[in-house]
Structure formats: C-alpha cells, structure tokens
Amino acid sequence: MKKGLKLPVSIVFSNIIGWLFRTKSCGILQRRSRFGIANFANTLCIMKKVVFLLMVMQAAVAALAQQGWLTPEALRMKREQIRFTDNQLRLFNGRGAAHVKRYSLTGIHRLQFPPIELANYSFFLNFYEHDADVLIQDNVPDLWEEWIRFGSGTDPLGANFRSGFATIPVTQDEYWEPNRYVRQGTFHKEYSRKTVSFGIKTETVASAKADEVILRMVLTNREPQPLKLSLIPNQQVLAKDNAAASSRLSPFVLAAGDYQVSLSSSIPDVDSRGWYVEVPAKGSREVYIAIKMGRKDAATAATDGAVADRFDGAIKDTRQRLSFASSRLPELRSDNRRLEDFYRRCIATMLECRWERENFIINPFWSVGSWVFTITWDNSFASDAISIMDPASMKRTILVAMKEGKLKSTYISWQGGGDGIFYIQEPFALKTMIDAYLRQTGDVAFLDEQVAGKSVMEWMKSWGDLLHVKYRSPFTGLMDMGRKNEELIEMRTDGYSGVVPVVNGLAVDLYRWLDGWCTLRNDGDASKFRGYANDLNDRMHAKLWNRSTRWFDNIYPDGRREPLYSNHLFDLLGTNAITDEERMGIISHLNDQEFLGPYSVYSISRQDKVRWDLIDSDWGGGGSFTGVPLRLARNLYGMGQGPLAWTILSRFSRYADYFPYLGQNLRANEPLQDESSMPIQISSGAGVEAVMFGLFGIKPNIDGTMFVNPHYSLELGRSSLQGYLFRGHSYSFEMDEFGFTVSRDGQSFGPFSYGEEAFVGKDGAVSIVKKGLASPYVRSYRSYFVNRRSVELLADAGTQIRYTLDRSEPSLRSTLYQKPFSIDKSTVVKAIAIKGNEQSLISEVAFEKLHFRDAANSGNVINRYDYPSITPLFTLSESHLPLYGIYTLMDGKHGGDTYRDGQWIGKDKDDVAFLLEWDSPVEVRKVSTRFLQYQPEWIFTPLAFTVEVSLNGKSFKKVGEQSFSIKERFDKKEIVSVVVSFPKEKVRYVRVTAKNMGVCPSWHGGACGNAWVFMDELIVE
C-alpha cells in the first residue's frame, strides 16, 4: 500500500476483526484447557487486542464524522446503471472537467479547464509487449464506432482471434464516483513465444489544484515471467470535419491552437514508443500518468515523480468538497432509500456546478451546468440551498448579475460581461434569490449594498420601472411580450407570446414585494409600486382567468384569447397573485392525462395536439426544465396539497436510479437526457428545497423565527432531517405515521400531530399553531371514460372526506368517502377534507362520459373503452415494465419496433396473462392486441393467444383463441396483430393469455435460453 493511502473504514474494521479472531496465539477462542478454564495468557492477549480495537474504532468513528454523510461511496453508481452517454458522464473537481470512454480502460476525452476547452480531445494508451512482439490497442470505442458507421476496420467482438483484426484488452467492470472513475479489465492471450496474461485496473480523476487529469493504473502480471511493456500514448484534437486540429510535437506533447496538452508519468524509463515498464512475475506495478493543459511552449517533462501525490490530493480534495456540503446542509435519513439517494444526488449536482478557479469573475462561481455561465433564472431554483451551504457566494452571485447584466443580459460568462441573451424572468428570479438569502441570513443590510453605482434595492426598483415602461400594453394594461418568444421560454412551436399570464402574475408579485420593502424603509416609491400591483392584478383576473377551462388565457397580438397549457404557469402557485379558486383550478390539471408523467411533469399538456413536442423536453412538451417540477412540489406542499406534491416528488426521485447527477430537461416518460442539452443543472437544488421546505415543511423567516408543518406519506416510513443550521442553531426534524418532532440544539419538542404547525421563536420556545386543512386530491388515470369510471379521493392522515356528485357544494352532511366509487355518467366531483370543526377548500374535478364513436375519434381521449382494473397473472419484470405500469396496456398508444420504447410489457419463459375486471357487468364481443417479434433479441410471438370470460371471476368460459406458427430464422422486426371476435357476452371478467414457448428453439442461436413475449395495447370492445 502506498504511504498515506487511506482505506475505507469498513475495510479497516473487517481486517481488524479478522485479525482479532484468527490469531492462533489467542487460543481462548479456539480451545479450552482440560479443566474448561481459559488459558490466562490467551485471555490477556484478547483483552489487549480488544482495547486496541476500541481505540481503532474510536479513531475510525472520528474519521467518519469528519468525512460527513455525503461521500463518494454513497454516490457511487455502476456504469451499466447509468443512462448517460460518454459525452454526458464527466469527472469534475471544481477546477475543470474531463470525460472517460466506456469500454476503454484508459480512454479520456473532452477536456474543460477554462479558458482551455477541448471538446474534441481524446487520449488512450496502447500496450506493446516486447517478448511476444504484440501491440494491444485500448481504443475499443473508436474501433466500435468505425465498425458500426462504416462496416470496416475491427469488429471489437471479433478482436484477438480474427485474422487482421486488432488485439485489444477486455473490459470487465466500470463505476463512477464524484471525480473518480474506476475501470477493471484483463488481457489473456497465448502466443508461440509466451503467454501474455495481465489484469488492468485504472482510476481517473481531475485535479482541483492544477489544470490536469490523472490516471492511476495497476498492472497485475499472472505469468511466471516478467511482463515487458511499452505504454504508447495516443492523443489528438479533431476539428468539426474530423480533420486533425492539433500537431504532435513528441510522443508526450500535443499542440492545439494557443495551448498544449502534455503527458508526464511516474514511470522513470522512456523508450522510442513511450514509457517502458516491467511488471515482475506474478506481481503488480502501479503507475501514474498526468494529462496537463497549459500555454503553448510551456516546459514539459515525460517523467514526474510527484504525480502520485497529486492523485492522492485530488481524491482528498473531492472528499473535502463533499464534506463541505454535508457540514452545511442537513442530512436526510429515511426508510425510503430512493428519496435518500435522490436528495444526495441533488446536492452532488449542485457541487458539479460549483467552480473554484482563480481566473473566474467570482470564486466560487455557480455555473448553470456544464455551460460555464451563471444564469439568474436557473440559480433561483437552488437559491435557498445555496444560501444555506454558502451564503457569501449567493450574495456575490446576486451582485454579479446586477453588475454584469445591467438590466439587459441574463447569461453572465465566467469572464464577466453579458452575452445579450435576456429572459423576462430575470427580475423575478433576482427577487427569489434575494428572498432566499434574507431568509437564511437575516442580513437585511444587503438591500443597501452598493454595486455598479446603485444599491441592491435600487436595482430591483429599476427592474420594476423597466417592466412597467417597456412591457405594459397601452391597449390592455397588461404585460405584453409581443412576439418576443425567446425572451420568455424557447419553444419550437409558436404561441407562447403576447400577453402571457405567468408574466403578469409574477409582475404583480414583484410589485407587491417592492411595495412591502419600500413601506418598511419609508421609501416614497411604495405607493407607486402598490398602484402598479393593484391595477395589474385587477386586469389580470378580469381579462385572463377562464372559469370554463380553469386556466388563464393568453391574449395574442391579433386579439385572440385562448389558453396555452404550459407548466410555466405553475410558478404562480408560489405567489399570492392568484385567488383560491384560481389556485385549485390550476392544480386540477395536474393529472396523468394532462401534465403528470411517470417520472416528471410535461412542460406542455399532453392534451395540446398543436404544440406538444416530444423531443424538446425543456419547455416544448416531452419533459420539464429540472427545477420546475421540484419547485412545483415545494409549492404544492406549501398549499397543503401533500398527496399531490408527494406524487410529483416521488416520481421525480426515480431518476436517481439512472443518473449520478441530474440534467437540464429529463424526459417525463422515460429516464432520458438528450445530448444537445446539459447533463448537469444547478436547478436540481430545487430537489433539496422540495424535501426541506416542502416535505418537512420548514418555513424560516427573516426575523429568525421558524414555522414547521411536515406532510407525511406512508411510503416515507420513518424519516428525519438532521442538522439544519439556522441563525447559530442546529435543528432536526423527525416524522413517522404518528406525528412529528422538532429539535433545537439537541432539545426535542413534540410529538405534534399533522395539521398542527410548530412555531419556533427566536428564543427557541416552541408553540403550536393550527393550520387550515389541505383539500382532497382526486386521483384518476383520466377524466374521460366510456362505460364506468372508478374515482379515488386522497387527503392527509387523520381527516375525513365529504363529497358531492350533483354540482352542489360539499358540507358536513354530504356523503362520507370510505372507498373508491364508480360513476357511469358525466359527473362533477366536489370534495372537502374535514377534521374536527375545520374544513378545507373545495376540490373539483369534472369527468366526461363519451360514446364509443366519440371516444375513438376524440383528441381528448386516449383509448376506446372504459378502464377495468388489470391484474397481471405472472411476475412482472421491473426492467421490462412500461413507465405507466400495466395501465400502459390501455393508454391508446401502440409500441414501435423496439421493446425499449416504454409501450411494451414483456416476460421471459412464462406466459403473459392478465385478468381484467369491471365494477359491473359489461358486454364484450372482441379482444385485440399486438405482439412484437424480433428473434435476434430472443423475442417471439406467442404459441397462442386465448380469451376467456366470466361473470363471477371463478368459472371462466373460453370464447376464442388464435394460434401462431413460429417462423424459423426470421431476423426481421415484426409487429403481429391479433383479433379474437366472438358472440356478444355479458361479463365482469376477461382473462387473456399469451402462451410463451418457454425457451428458444433448437435452431435458434440462443437455444435453451429463455424466450420472450412482448404485448402492447389491449383493446376490449
């Protein structure tokens, strides 16, 4: 072991305990004397070792405490689990970033150490074994790309044994940690001269102290003869046309423009090819290689004895960065492990945006993500989390936006200066950031701090005046964007322009904020901003609210008024600019057929057939800008809408199963981040805030007091938030199904009941404030139906629900909700939650019954039949279960020619069978579905598809069956439709079974392996 190299505490413990109980001299654990009494010497030996063990454990616990709860090991993720491409998965240590190539043991590419940015840089090592005279190439990704694109070169799967193909090492295992990527591989080949057999393990890190990337490599020789290798470096920078954009000055130095990339190693011996190293027989050799960036013609050396120390320093620096965050932010502990992991990854994503370089305009510099700009709008989503972690940096970030943006630019480069891109969100985002800073610090004097000739408050007043002068329409009196769509949000379909309601609502909120601060400061401008707010507020409600759609309308330049269903409008839920009626109307659209996806929130409602854009996840439809659904969850919690907020937060947390950090605009219907957008987004900090200020209901105030009102879900089990630092005190919060507690500096208060709000005074005294009840949440997969619809109502624990179905207002005398109920006609469900003498606001959802013909043709309906309940009669495979679960069988969308598109339900070996159950008898006459066949991937049609029906669910009648003949060696993708028709039957149950052949047939390449059956849309008529 290298001097100074630290092992994980768990490994230290296991080795010490093994040593304690295996040592033969301590025979007390192995034998007794003839008289059954332990030998005294052995007992003394054990006692000494126990004392030593306790000392080591004490030191280890101290080391763990110093390390914190946010560690590389806690964030580790296997490469096969990660859905990022090589261009999206990076290593970063605050100073610069590098990417690694999967399936290569040494491949490194895409260097970013501003001002040096080499997006088309690549590096890998070849190994020349001298005795066997063989070149081993570690460029599998390049070979594979060439083979796939052009059909020439080396097929990596044919390497090492086909004549003329390259000789390559084989990868075995890869995993990512923050700023550390570990790869394990092997090479084993018999030659006439000798057998070459060795293992390779590499670790790659980016330095936090210098502009370099360091590769640690351990070579393990399995043979009884020395392994004699030349390590041959290969590096290049390509232009856009794949032509060389660099020149090779030596095997170790590459020139690219005004910069150069030089290589140095801990290996002292150099030959004509590169570095020369001998690995002893049956032994190992550890080597280090540094990739250094610098100015052209800087001094270089192929050998460097200090590389190993710098590698260890980079590992230490990464742990310190993580420890810094974990010492400032509270720790989430929960029986819901996925939520725990998600919370940690939100923090890790924020750290991926924290640059610490001496040549940046401010240090630290919070970038928007992998683009090295600071953007106020994006920062605002994480402003509370940043203000807790590093309030001084939040303060500087606000000031630099004012100084460099100058009311004109939103993007601020790391070098300073705006680039002319402007978002109308700028003043609203600045308000959010200032509020967060003031809440966490109480530093009200910040409003008077001078920057670029004005105080912070004067800058904000200037924003208020600019909005009024530049954007207020003389015709409507409303904020009018005209056709400046790009100043609002970028969409590839038109329509988000003119008078946009969210801009008007946020402007009202800003004006009221300015009025409030001006009043407190005896500023005469208070009345001006109050007038702006009141006038704009009245016009917005009168001219934009649409009661029939329960949404705000846009007014377009040609005078048209119509709604555009964008998730941007949900920002108004965090303001006081809308009424309770409007608030409840807006959230009524948060359902599975409009905005809610299986992972996130769609940015455009799925019901908008004109504008919805699958690929443009950011704002066009297919997903959301990352901060939006997380802020939405926080705001819903703040409204008391706990069940709905948890639905959104828990779905979003599923991304933590697939991504080590969170990207800019993840798809709402699958774990996918497109490559044209950033794989890292600072707005992920909104996930931290959704947990702290939403789920746990922490509400800190500028005056140093605090409210606490958690929202419990059974899926949380027992959960706690430990170590929230606020105004010189440490707070912890714990909740389970029975209630919650609040602790201040170790002193616990409670337990309290849900629905009660704890108030913590400046002196630490805790009292209880009663809160209004949250409205019930109507959960249904869709609001359109044909035969019958089951309706489920949810509310917070300890409350009862009363509802009406006749459009009347619910009261204490209305029907008591006890279990899901069915409706068979168009119905408006209105419900309230009741606890004691309290009752909530009314929830309202309209369900519309359609005829079969209308259902088939309507753009508002997703299928042509009513929902039965669906029960799978086989064990579902999580990896091949569509994103909407089994109800994907009834979403009206057919699968494509790949089982990975989220529309196919598959099972290997077993039959694919489902039981459909209706609430009351229905008449059926036809069942149809489709099957996917692609034999190269072991996917076959079933042997038969059988339909059975029943009235009682016990005795079933077979009404039809279709058999299939399996085509031998059919290598094309095929979608096979099946329709089973039969005389009309009155039934409550339909059982369908697709008979799986079990194993692949003898003529198939996967003979005896499990065969798969994949089914998509199931239609019952």
Automatic annotation (TrEMBL):
Alphabetized Gene3D superfamilies for the sequence: 1.50.10.10, Galactose-binding domain-like (2.60.120.260)
Keywords: Membrane, Transmembrane, Transmembrane helix
Record has Transmembrane helix as a keyword: yes
Organism: Acetobacteroides hydrogenigenes
Protein's recorded name: Glycogen debranching enzyme
Biological process, per Gene Ontology: carbohydrate metabolic process
Annotated TM spans: 50-70
Residue stretches making up the GH29D-like beta-sandwich domain: 788-839
Superkingdom of origin: Bacteria
Keyword Membrane (UniProt): yes
